[in-house]
């Protein structure tokens, strides 16, 4: 049976990563109350929210496979979600300045027959940031829909000194591992062998 991948997300970054590796999909965002997940452990929280998103997405056809993910930024055990306003974004970036923080992305894949979940972790070190550097980044309006108030794939790259682990995990989807896990659900990249 041919499988159809459903991305349970409205994240343009996750969509772009699937497109990058030629995996066809349909986006089907679910509005879930992430506040239902109260775990103080960032790794556990990322996995539980991914599970919640996946399980809240209706499988409307037997061949559908759901992919859901959630990314959590944490520093010394404190979870940094999406900032509510500029002041909160500034405070997050000031706290991350000069420090090494963790980025966890929880991923859940499920079909009518099976379910799999995992969490990928990447360490990110920020440069020590001046007030002017933080203000310049906030002026890009890049902070407000991203955990930890920054996006490594855009101007936020200027804040990052070093990463240890999967870069794409910080973007929002550890695509290399996701491809391998999707293979267990008979979802594969489309490889075009035609030569010009």
How would you describe this structure to a colleague?
- The chain is of the alpha/beta class and 196 residues long.
- The chain has a single domain, classed as Maf protein (Alpha-Beta Complex), CATH 3.90.950.
- The chain is built from six helices and seven strands; from the N terminus they run βαβαββαββαβαα.
- Strands 1, 2, 3, 4, 5, 6 and 7 form a seven-stranded mixed beta sheet that branches.
- Helix 3 (86-96) packs across helix 4 (131-138).
- The radius of gyration is 17 Å and the shape is globular.
- The mean pLDDT is 93.
Structural class computed from helices and strand pairing: alpha/beta
Number of domains: 1
The biggest beta sheet reads: 7 strands, mixed
First-residue to last-residue Cα separation? 31 Å
Give the low-confidence spans: none
Q: How much helical structure, as a percent, in the residues?
A: 25-40%
Please identify, by name, the CATH architecture: Alpha-Beta Complex
**Number of E strands:** 7
Supply the CATH class: Alpha Beta
User: Can you count the helices?
Assistant: 6
